[in-house]
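Lab notebook, page 48
Experiment: co-folding of the full assembly
Goal: obtain a model of how the components sit together before planning crosslinking
Operator: M.T.
Materials (sequences as entered):
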Amino acid sequence: MSTYEARFRVWRGDQDGGGLADFSVEVHDGEVVLDIIHRLQATQAPDLAVRWNCKAGKCGSCSAEVNGRPRLLCMTRMSVFTPEETITVTPLRAFPVVRDLVTDVSFNYTQARRVPSFAPPPGLAAGEYRMQQMDVDRSQEFRKCIECFLCQDTCHVVRDHEENKTAFAGPRFLMRVAELDMHPLDAAAEAGLDRKAAAQEEHGLGYCNITKCCTEVCPENIKITDNALIPLKERAVDRKYDPLVWLGSKIRRRSGS
Amino acid sequence: MATGTEPPHIHTGVHDPSRAAIGPRHLRTDRWWLAPALTAAGLLAFIVYSTWRAFANADYYAAPYVSPFYSPCLAENCVPMKAGPNWEIFGSWWGLSPALLILVFPLGFRLTCYYYRKAYYRGFWASPPACAVAEPHRKYTGETRFPLILQNIHRYFFYAALPVAVILTYDTVLAFRDEDYAWGHMGLGTLVFLINIVLIWAYTLSCHSCRHIIGGRLRHFSKHPVRYRLWGWVGRLNERHMLLAWSSLISVALADFYVYLLATGAFDDPRFF
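Observation: model returned without errors.
Model output:
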């Protein structure tokens, strides 16, 4: 097994200030960046704060930025860097910092609460739901989300414009709207809830300019832009900007009155 | 989208006081600027070339080939093309290049295309220039306001792009004639036109709006098996939308340039049979 000394720069601090601290740390074959952060904790910086849980890319806890790119620390292999490279690790730059590599991601939980949950179909009890696989495939792709919030972190709409956080839910929660709107048994419309209208009017779908950074950083390789955001935009076009649909709805309303 | 002309605004973003105090706008160490720079250069090259050719109003027909920039030719000032795409619905009052009448449709289709939007928002407007690289604009409203809210009319340009593709297919069929309009011949130009029309159709059908109209809008695929299958095919094409956008852009420019070279007498069309 080969080892080498890597140069690391890790952001240390809190909301009162901070900066990049330099470290020289041992790296072994097969390790990931989170292993190195743990070695720093064990040998040089015992008070270094980092959030982590599963070390398997499934809990979404250890989100941070490595060399300026939003990544999961546990899924970033050291072998992708050269031994000569200085590796910079910082907290997510779209959210308030708590300490060192830990950020306050409560913005995301606020947005999650704003999306009305699955509306059960009337007349069906739990256990009686029946669906064809082809009808739920689309929604199930979005269920792979581990809520690491890397997509939320990299989305320039909120990353570069703090003021947009009140108007824009971010890709993760627009994807949640898409997941429910495409669900074969979601009875939101019967309950008087228009998810397409909500996506546009309450969750800020129009802010998305489909530059695909959310898709680029997703560790689950969910095609967020192509399969969730663009279809949602097309559904918004159906109800609002399509003159043929508009004309049809006017005629139907008139003939029905 | 930001205009940069709004009154001074506190620039928060990655330098918001609540976030980690990091000076640089980004810490990326890779060549993140290369992709937007190449995209901008490629699009700019096409804009310059197509503007020159669209306004030139010359050298767009060398029997049996007609430049895709001038087809269908909708004004009386078009060169007569035997059995070709002359359709003089604009009569004699149109004095400018007839290419301008038709190019507005493919231009609008590509301008509002979901891929090209990403390309020029990143390449020309730096919104954002690359992922996790802070954009330089103070304010951002995305596609919520005029004029960018008009991007929502993409599907109408998709509808308009379909007949244009049909006419270019017709032109490709006409390319199986020789310069004396006798059928059953094929030259290098025919091959150029064939490749171009395949790429044009593939790009047009891989459009996100097409994918939605074909089946994406459905809730229960199981009730519409034919549309589901078509949606799957369009989806597979859609995964290559960027590749098709670039290859069809290049092929249409090459097809036009080939006709230009023939029309100016630079060389004769090599004949296969």
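Interpretation: The first strand of chain A starts at residue 3 and ends at 14.
Next step: discuss with group before ordering constructs.
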